[in-house]
Design a protein that fits this description.
With 249 residues, this protein is an alpha+beta fold. It has helices at residues 4-11, 39-48, 74-83, 151-158, 178-188, 195-207, 216-230, 234-247, and strands at residues 18-20, 53-57, 64-69, 92-94, 100-105, 113-118, 121-124, 129-131, 140-142. The strands form two sheets. A six-stranded antiparallel beta sheet has the order 6-7-3-5-4-9, sandwiched between helices. The protein has a three-stranded antiparallel beta sheet with strand order 1-2-8.
Length: 249
């Protein structure tokens, strides 16, 4: 298989690229803002900040958006089953977690969102990026051009959130585990200016512990329940918890 840099050079004929680590985080100092289509710039990026994965910025800079369907979440699987027939044929990639990236032509003004459609169904648009999983050997499920967003889905993504606020969850039972309790205590003691960073940090630490004793859903509920007393809104805590748990796996 060709090296990530060699694949990036080919991909860059159509879309900007940048190197990412195995955990999907950018290796370059400015993240997706360092993405380029210039071969010399790409060579410099992979020489100075090598990474095994290729990231592509989403939104206006590349002309593509990604609908990210995370198969770990039952609501995401249910949404896909109920709505896949209503989606137009468009380029689609299998992701490392067994989910899907459905790529659409960028719609001006569309930004990233987490769980707006359903839990586990996220959007990467302006201000975001996606891993180009075919470069890592994962299958292309539909090798066509990217379609336009369907009007019904775009309306849902752009509608106000006030009428669809997430319900407040019951406070979960904290497991009898010293490390979990210390992480939650640290998060609950967060001061103003630290809350988002500590919530993301806690989610990353819990991502390292996922397994038989701590499920994704339990970890998410614990983080949200600890972040809200620290001062985050439910939606901020929910989005940051999902971002950390997914991005740090």
């Amino acid at each position: 298989m060709d090296s990530p840099f060699a694949i990036a050079l080919i991909l860059a004929s159509k879309i900007p690229c940048f190197p990412c680590a195995h955990d999907k985080a950018p290796t370059c100092p400015h993240g997706f803002k360092d993405a380029s289509r210039d071969p010399a710039t790409l060579q410099q990026l992979w020489t100075n900040y090598p990474g095994p994965l290729i990231g592509v910025p989403t939104g206006a800079v590349s002309g593509i958006d990604a609908l990210d369907i995370d198969a770990k979440h039952p609501p995401a699987r249910d949404w896909w089953t109920a709505n896949r027939a209503q989606l137009p044929p468009t380029r689609a990639h299998r992701t490392r977690s067994g989910g899907l990236h459905c790529l659409f032509q960028h719609t001006a003004g569309l930004s990233c969102s987490v769980g707006r459609v359903a839990r586990g169904v996220d959007v990467r648009a302006d201000g975001g990026y996606a891993i180009w999983w075919p470069a890592a050997g994962l299958p292309v499920l539909h090798d066509g051009e990217s379609a336009c967003w369907p009007a019904w889905l775009l309306q849902l993504l752009q509608s106000p959130l006030t009428s669809r606020a997430l319900p407040e969850p019951p406070r979960p039972v904290v497991p009898d585990d010293r490390r979990i309790r210390r992480i939650l205590e640290c998060l609950e003691a967060a001061r103003e200016g630290e809350r988002n960073n500590l919530t993301h940090w806690a989610a990353c630490r819990f991502a390292e512990m996922l397994g038989p004793q701590l499920s994704y859903e339990e970890a998410h509920a614990l983080i949200v329940a600890a972040a809200m007393p620290a001062g985050l809104s439910h939606r901020e805590a929910d989005n940051t918890a999902h971002s950390g748990l997914r991005g740090c796996v």
